[in-house]
Design a protein that fits this description.
Length: 111
């Protein structure tokens, strides 16, 4: 059983991962199916170097894992429940207020 401090650390780590739009796109893509970095970079329209940095962050956060596949490495969500959590979180946020933005986040110190 996790302590409250450990729960907070885990949720903060997930929040940091979701704080970047590219990492969100990667997680949502991997929610659909495991993928190879080159394919992910092409489908997301970003450079392989940039993708690699974001994948390293997600891997360090424990949200994605690598799976050796011959001479290639495939990425996938570390646990299928992460896909369900992303679905639930997206549905909850859209249900609350889909038209909100954090345009003035720096002024208010939020987001």
């Amino acid at each position: 059983m996790l302590t409250l401090a450990a729960d907070i650390d885990v949720l903060a780590r997930f929040g940091r991962a979701l704080a970047d739009p590219i990492r969100c796109r990667i997680l949502l893509a991997l929610r659909q199916a495991p993928a190879y970095p080159a394919d992910l970079a092409d489908s997301l329209g970003i450079s392989r170097t940039r993708l690699s940095n974001h994948l390293a962050c997600l891997r360090d956060c424990g949200l994605v894992v690598t799976v050796p596949d011959g001479r290639r490495t495939r990425y996938e969500l570390a646990d299928e429940r992460l896909g369900h959590a992303l679905d639930d979180l997206r549905a909850a946020v859209v249900a609350v207020e889909a038209d909100r933005t954090c345009a003035d986040a720096d002024e208010k110190g939020c987001c």
